[in-house]
């Protein structure tokens, strides 16, 4: 028996290695506010430069009808990572409670059971970055801006305790370097990598290295977007060369997908600086933009490649959706099929083993809008408005057939309503929370004149360094491009801003440095109220750090906010920016003290 043990152990190890080799590595590259035509494979815009991504499509599949699950960052990311319509677990839009997401299994959690190493790099946006490992990710490098990020491994591939690291690199380059390090770290076993670049999402911040690739006359915001997309394209090239170097290309499937369409703000205003507004990406010939369930808001760049396993050079025209990533990953990892997943394993369709469309229909619900696509037909609802389009000859959604094709409209309406009954909460639409989508529908779908251009409110530093902010229990001054608040004694101070008009629910985004730990929060007074109510406050615990940190605070106001208090920790706190955004990620009011 003792003589047999080495043989048995050897066979077991060989079996495990063979089984592991049968499981492909899975890489998901997720881009941010990236318009459908802004990759070379789309064949639309001739100013774009994406040679590495074009080669990826040439050896794989360009899905010309690839969709996101929502026209906004948080819900689309939740749907992608869980593999279910995010409306089923209550993540309808930005700023909503993530408890439902936290209860679900991510792709990473599922694949860990199949022996995969898992990694998250870049933008998270689904809770605190320090807690990403709770969602099944072993390795984390959560870089989404030119500032320190939470990470538990270095760009040299060394494991470290989760901490804030400062690599001093351009954030897109750092993410690409982290992806290379992750691949090298885990080259001996199957791995799942989720790489979410924060690009070309604002703030537009491309360095000259990438800007110089796009000389000539053009909108500066367009130049910035092209440069940031080019930086991501370099990352695609680095990933592919790393896979080839370690003989992993034939055993790795890569998805490249956008999270939603580009924000155009209707006017595509070429505002100076890189802050809120048009991000420079384009959606045409698709109609509409981020924040809409028209094609411009949800049809996105979508490329899949698995050399040697999926025939290359395909342009796949059937509708597919980001939900399909989880279902495909589960199947490729050899896990038991899960009927609760809303996606489909795409590989048999790309190989020609299965014919026809992967989906009989694809549905969406986002706040006041809902939509369904079945074959070439699409029904779109916004409030009480309804539109019916035949996308086979009208991908720009210009001709509304709602009255000329009543039978088709009714069939899709019934199918959409049945699907919506399974969501949380049930029904076709929630409250609008913002009038922005109505203006977008007026302009893009109903042909009304463009509304007046909305300008971001910025402080006039020469006239008023504090931009109208006052402080209680402390002193306030402008220093080094920030507001510096100092408490008097040990009592935490708060800043005050009045004469506001913020409608309904919103999210406060605050960038600050705190000398002491404490709570950062927003208290609000509504129109008609004489004083602040005790239950009208939302806050978050923050740590003392010398680096800039960001906090997002959802505000569930029921009415018009006219007066706020910004609560900060005791001691000295520097405030770089305060923003209030609506459910569409659009600025309601902003103060950028660095400008």
- Fraction in helix: 10-25%
Number of helices: 13
Looking across the biggest beta sheet, what order are the strands in?
5-4-8-1-9-10-2-11
**Overall residue-averaged pLDDT value:** 90
- The percentage of residues in β strands lies in 25-35%
Can you tell me the CATH class of the largest domain? Answer: Alpha Beta
Number of self-contained structural domains? 3
Kindly report the CATH topology of the largest domain: Alkaline Phosphatase, subunit A
Please identify, by name, the CATH architecture of the largest domain: 3-Layer(aba) Sandwich
Distance between the termini: 77 Å
What's the total count of β strands?
A: 28
Instruction: Write down the Rg.
Output: 25 Å
Which stretches of 5+ consecutive residues score pLDDT under 50?
1-20, 455-465
Structure classification: alpha+beta
């Amino acid at each position: 028996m003792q003589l047999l043990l080495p043989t048995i152990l050897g066979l077991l190890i060989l079996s495990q290695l063979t089984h592991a080799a049968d499981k492909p590595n899975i890489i998901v590259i997720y881009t941010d506010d990236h318009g459908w035509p802004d990759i070379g494979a789309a064949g639309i815009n001739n100013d774009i430069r994406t040679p590495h991504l074009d080669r990826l499509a040439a050896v794989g599949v360009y899905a010309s009808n690839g969709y996101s699950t929502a026209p906004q960052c948080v819900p689309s990311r939740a749907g992608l990572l869980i593999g279910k319509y995010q409306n089923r677990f209550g993540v309808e839009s930005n700023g909503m409670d993530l408890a439902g997401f936290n209860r679900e299994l991510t792709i990473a959690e599922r694949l860990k059971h199949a022996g995969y190493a898992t990694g998250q790099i870049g933008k998270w946006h689904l809770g605190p970055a320090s807690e990403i490992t709770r969602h099944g990710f072993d390795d984390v490098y959560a870089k989404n801006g030119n500032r320190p990020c939470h990470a538990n491994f270095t760009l040299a591939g060394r494991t470290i305790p989760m901490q804030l690291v400062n690599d001093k690199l351009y954030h897109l380059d750092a993410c690409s370097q982290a992806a290379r390090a992750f691949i090298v770290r885990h080259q001996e076993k199957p791995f799942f990598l989720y790489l979410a670049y924060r690009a070309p999402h604002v703030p537009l911040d491309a360095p000259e290295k990438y800007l110089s690739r796009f000389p000539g006359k053009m909108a500066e915001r367009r130049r910035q977007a092209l440069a940031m997309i080019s930086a991501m394209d370099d990352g695609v090239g680095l990933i592919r060369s790393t896979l080839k170097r370690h003989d992993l290309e034939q055993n790795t499937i890569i998805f490249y997908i956008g999270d939603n369409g580009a924000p155009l703000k209707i006017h595509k205003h070429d505002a100076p600086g890189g802050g809120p507004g048009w991000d420079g990406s384009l959606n045409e010939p698709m109609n509409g933009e981020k924040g809409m369930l028209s094609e411009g808001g949800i049809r996105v760049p979508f490329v899949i490649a698995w050399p040697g396993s999926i025939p290359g050079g395909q342009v796949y025209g059937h509708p597919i959706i980001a939900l399909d990533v989880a279902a495909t990953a589960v199947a490729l990892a050899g896990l038991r099929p899960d009927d609760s997943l809303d996606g489909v394993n795409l590989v048999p369709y790309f190989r020609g083993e299965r014919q026809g469309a992967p989906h009989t229909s694809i549905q969406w619900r986002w706040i006041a809008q809902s939509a369904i696509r079945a074959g070439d037909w699409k029904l779109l609802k916004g409030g009480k408005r309804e539109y019916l389009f035949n996308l086979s000859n009208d991908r720009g959604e210009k001709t509304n057939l709602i009255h000329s094709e009543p039978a088709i409209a009714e069939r899709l309406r019934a199918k959409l309503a049945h699907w919506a009954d399974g969501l949380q909460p049930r029904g076709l639409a929630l409250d609008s929370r913002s009038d922005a989508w109505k203006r977008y529908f007026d302009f893009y779908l109903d042909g009304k004149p463009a509304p007046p251009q909305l300008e971001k409110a910025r402080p006039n530093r020469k006239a008023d360094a504090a931009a109208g902010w006052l402080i209680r229990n402390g002193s306030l001054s402008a220093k080094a491009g920030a507001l510096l608040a100092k408490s008097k004694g040990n009592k935490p101070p708060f800043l005050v801003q009045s004469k506001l008009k913020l409608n309904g629910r919103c999210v406060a985004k605050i960038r600050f440095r705190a000398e002491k730990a404490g709570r950062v929060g927003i208290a609000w007074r509504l129109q008609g109220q004489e004083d602040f109510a005790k239950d009208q406050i939302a806050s978050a615990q923050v740590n003392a750090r010398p680096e800039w940190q960001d906090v997002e605070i959802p505000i569930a106001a029921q009415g018009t906010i006219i007066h706020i208090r910004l609560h900060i920790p005791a001691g000295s706190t520097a405030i770089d920016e305060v923003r209030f955004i609506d459910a569409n990620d659009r600025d309601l009011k902003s103060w950028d003290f660095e400008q």
